[in-house]
Amino acid sequence: MNTPNDDALVLYGQRFESRLLLGTARYPSPAALQAAVQRARPAMLTAALRRQGSIEQGKSFWAMLKELQVPVLPNTAGCHSVQEAITTSHMAREVFDTPWIKLEVIGDDYTLQPDTLNLVQAAEQLVRDGFYVLPYCTEDLVLCQRLVDVGCQAIMPWAAPIGTGRGPVNPYAMQTLRQRLDVPMLVDAGLGLPSHACQVMEWGFDGVLLNTAVAQAADPVRMAGAFADAVAAGRAAHLAGAMQPRESAQPSTPVLGTPFWHHAQEA
Ligand SMILES: CC(=O)[C@@H](O)[C@H](O)COP(=O)(O)O
User: Fold this and answer.
1) Given 19, 39, 102, 146, which residue is catalytic?
2) Predicted pLDDT of residue 4
3) What is the pTM of this model?
């Protein structure tokens, strides 16, 4: 029997049972992608409208995504300008028949760093056009605030540049961001290990989006499972309320006073 999840992820008013989102690129085979998705059961699958490959390959890829029955989150990967991102988003909405868009506007091709100056403008227009915009951004607090100001109901700060697998490179800024803004935040890009995902979930992030760490693992299916478990563990730890670290040692078993077995013997 399925028990209702009272801790579902809610984005733009929609509930998702999982807090893990997966990318669909760079898997060794379509079968590996399918099996990884079946193992991880992600909330959404992101795919670039501008995928490389022949028209035939494209058609069978989209058919496979449909078969997986996981909501598709089209993305604007490869877009470098506001207009390009907006046009691509509108095409994606027609192709996938969905209001969701992962908004990427790349500002630097070497680091794949989001164009923080133009991202807000693109997001504002897309929100006005009725999209559910999930902007891929840096962990800069003021940028994230501006994205929220223009109507983004959730944001996706990076942990590290796409494909690096370095994990959160700026823990201080990420934790500050989490404390300062009260919107759903999904950490997108740069996670390499399940422990990275667990860490950001412990900090209170609402979910993670990742691709390379699963797709490029020696065993993508097993790694997909490991990430799904890590995301759930990090979320549970966050909700459980962690102890505060201490400077000095404190015995976890009190040894002072009368041992409890002493009373038992006297009774
Ligand atoms: C697929 C996708 O959207 C990536 O651009 C995303 O940002 C994930 O990054 P990693 O591959 O570093 O997990």
Assistant:
1) 102
2) 62
3) 0.90
